[in-house]
Amino acid sequence: MNDERNGIPKPTFMRKCIRVPLSKLIALKPIKPEVKRGGKYQQILTSVREVGLVEPPVVKQAPHKKGSYFVLDGHLRVEALRDLDAPEVDCLIALEDDTYTYNKHVNRLSAVQNHRMIVKAANNGASPERLAKALGFTPETIRKKFKLLQGICEEVAELLADSNCPQTTFDVLRRMKPVRQIEAAELMLGNRDFSAVFAKALLLTTPPEQLVAPNSRANKAAGVGQATGIERELATLQSRAKIMEDSYSDDLMVLTVTKGYLTTLLSNAPIVRWLTKHHPEYLKEFERIVDMESLPGVARVSGNGARLVSNKAQPSL
Questions:
Q1: Is 92 helix (H, G, I), strand (E, B) or coil?
Q2: pLDDT at 1
């Protein structure tokens, strides 16, 4: 019985990278001269020269050519290594012939991840000027990214590690004491809002005893514009509430239809037996939905039916 039948996903890559001579890598598409003259290639070339290869190319064993590999992703990185006369490169070995996924589903580095990368490069001896040249920033920007987490407690750094949180938001958070930083980070995660505007609104509602320097000029200036800032935030929150209200109604309709469909599905004995044998965890969740006495946003009334109530009257699930 294979892994898929046991419910274990089939691995897509080998667990470890393998070092492959560049002479054994076969490109699936040619690198045109105009591409190598372009800004993107020059940036990759500079980055590889200054800080080394960050992301390994993805390759697959070439059929009928033992020891040779087709390059699925990372053609420009491989070409840059060739131009720099590198003899070999660590490669990620793919077990499936997939050239679509890598460039179409990319997770961009968050601010915290960017900071950690820069700190690691700096600890390895890279100067701000060298990093700026490699990454396309100014040296001053590199220094700011290096200091991103100064004054930020470790819990907040972990909470926001994978979020799209701009540097200006961290500038606001470090004005708060650690306990308030954690509260603010949790509120931002709950609202999925990591903007500096939202962080400043949280700063305005922070008691003075939870501020690092309540009498500082920056906090006094924030207090002067408190009324205007709150009005602006209220307008933004009202707009978001309207969007959430519309989305809630659509989700409620989908859930109602889903509940009816699952009720019909679970009345079929063979289907229930199959789910019990192969996917008991799905069956448990399906039964939980079917057994719901009422749906969120639905109020029971006397008689044979139910009526929808306003989302404003029942805003929480």
A1: strand
A2: 41
